Amino acid sequence: MSPVIEEHARARLITDGPLTRPVPVDLRYDPADERRTVHIGLPDGTDWAFGRDLLERGLRTPIERGAVRVWPCGRTQLIVELHSTDGVEVFQFEIRTLIRFLARTRHTQTPGASPDTGGEPRPPSRTTRPDKSEKQGGRPERGAQPAHG
Predict the structure, then answer these.
(1) Is the dihedral of CA 16, 56, 48, 101 positive or negative?
(2) Are 45 and 131 a contacting pair, CB within 8 Å?
């Protein structure tokens, strides 16, 4: 059984205002998941899950699957657009970050597992993750400000 691949990364949240802002994201891949699902955890506790092939193809050409759109932006950036009932979130990633993450996921395939081929792709899904401070035994996450009241 291969370990789960996790990588903490930074993306830029693109808004309709003049400024973008960097946000921390968590990239996760479990090689035991036969659907080859990649998870992108956002700072608000939202977790987006979709097929690894969507990111891989999006590195080369625009692709859309359900509520997720991915496309290259120049030679060094990748845009990931996430649609939900709450609206649209657009993130800009450094391509090299995603290439490194995806390379790590390919090296962890379980023996006998077939590579991503044909088949029906899994539709993207959006869930809410438990609060990180609860997972860490009540300790606020690094950089969080304590509540004053």
Answers:
(1) negative
(2) yes
φ/ψ (deg, to 5) at 33: -75, 110
Contacts (Cβ under 8 Å, ≥6 apart) of 137? none
- Tell me the pLDDT tens digit for each residue of 29-39: 998 887 889 99
- For residue 147, the 8-state DSSP code is P
Provide DSSP, 35-48: T-EEEEE-TTSEEE
For the chain, the farthest-separated pair of C-alpha atoms sits apart, in whole angstroms, at: 56
* pTM of the entire predicted model: 0.73
Q: Which domains does the chain have, with CATH numbers?
A: 5-111 (2.30.31.20)
List, in sequence order, every residue forming a beta bridge with 71; answer none if it has no partner: 79
